[in-house]
Predict the structure.
Amino acid sequence: MLLNVQWFYFILARHILKISNETKVGIITVVALALLFIGYNFLKGNDVFSSEHEFYTDYDNVDGLTISKPVVVNGYQIGRVSGMQLLPNGKIRTHFKIKNEFDIPSNTVARIVSADLLGSKAIVFELGNSTTLAKSGDPLLSDVQANLLEKVEPLQAKVENLVVKLDSVLSAVNTALDKEFQRDFKSSLHSISVSLKNIETITNDVEGLMGSEKIRMSRIMQNLESITNNFHRNNGKINNILTNLDSLSDDLAKTEIKATIDNATQVMKNVEVITTRINNGEGSIGLLLNDDKLYHNLNNASESLDNLIKDVEERPGRYIRLSIFGKKDTP
């Protein structure tokens, strides 16, 4: 195998030596022209060694975009800008050459974006969702991304307006902050400082008091904890006692209420019987209340008794006679 290769190079060298100088110059010239053609097309964005699809779109402004700029999808280059021409309506028709291995949907958007902070542009294909693919020579949708300066200019205008308003506010505040206001403000700050010092003193006193009573508080907390533990341990007994007390209270309440109701009922019956007898004129009270004659007789008797007592008091000798010598007095 090595002998065959050497033999091939030997025969090739003999043929080259046999070629005339004019032929050599012609071959070199053709090769140079081919390289010049290839380089020129490469600089224009054309690849003479591969077949590509070509698309185009129209822009209102292509500032910063030049031929051979990359065409990318999600940061990956799939082609380049192959040509640009000014149309009679003022738009710039831009051509793209895309490698055949990439399918481009018909609703794809070719957007001009900023490639760097220096203003250089590139083309970004935002692939559409159409199932129909664009054919070579078809137009694509166009879009231009706002550059950084276009975004900054409105913000700059807003900042300038804000600075003007802020200057007016500061001027008004400066006018309001006269010497009297500053003096009052300093006085207020001094009062606040004194108040804070007083609060700090009170806080220190409270901390000292809590420190001195710390042992006592600890004992109280221990006692409370002990009491709580006792309640917890005797929780069942306490519940039983409370249940028994509740039951006993219910029983007593029920018993007393029943007895009281029975007594009240009996008393009411007795009162009703007495009232009935009095109304019927039975008994002394009934006769006294219902018999007018008896009332008048009693009244007359009372009056006669009253007269008798009065006469006895006025003339006792008429009713009482004393005999000193044992002899009866004649009437």
About this structure: Residues 277 and 286 are 7 Å apart (CA to CA). The mean pLDDT is 76.
